[in-house]
Amino acid sequence: MIIHDFTEVHSVMNQFISELRDVEIQKDRMRFRKNIERIGQILAFELSKTLSYKETSIKTPLGTKLMSLPTEDMVLCSVLRAGLPLHQGMLNCFDQAENAFISAYRLHRDDPEEFEVVVKYLAAPSLENKTLILTDPMLATGKTLENVLKALKKHGTPAKIHIVSVIGSQVGVNYIQSIFPSDTHLWIAAIDPILDRKAYIIPGLGDAGDLSYGMKL
Fold it and tell me: How far, in Å, are 6, 24, 64, 144, 169 from residue 192 at the CA level?
């Protein structure tokens, strides 16, 4: 896996990440969602530097100009519901991309510290020979992305896979490295060192879905 970790990169993205983590600022749901969207847009810009391009002649009111334009057929696939603001940030850059959505959640049975990731809903176009971008803001254990990859197999084999996350754990990063093809790209704003006993990222920021859209039962 090719990892693009922006943890130590000094940029305005650090401001957005710090506000996501801040227990006071994150109470503002609109700002929380907007900061995830901003991070998605920055990561989309960085990702765009690795795409394939072709020179195309553009007619202007005063002449013509050769421009290098991206040529890849892209599908943005986001994990509901926490992935929606990140998806929008990516879509701000890749507005011609097709879109896919998948639900994945932690199902706790008897032990609150044990869970399985359940996928119940998937809406996706064909992925055959396309560039697949998987967006999930929190990469904790990596099990969600593993199950998403399994669920998407019936929609075809993508030519390339990119994963985009806001914050991940080193445990989760290590795990998906063993699951995804070796040429998969991971674009991640920050990697935190550990998970707690409930598999939440430490120091992390909490539950991105709840902070974006409110508590769930």
Answer: 12, 20, 48, 18, 5
Number of helices followed by number of strands (H, E) in the chain:
6, 12
Give the tens place of pLDDT for each residue, 85-142. Answer: 999 999 999 999 999 999 876 665 666 666 676 777 899 999 999 999 999 999 999 9
Half-sphere exposure of 217 (CA within 13 A, CB side): 0
Please tell me the pTM assigned to this model: 0.91
Q: Domains in the chain, please, with CATH? A: 2-51+71-213 (3.40.50.2020)
- Give the β-pairing of 63-70 and 74-80: unpaired
Tokens of 174: 């290590």
Q: State whether residue 162 is helix, strand or coil.
A: strand
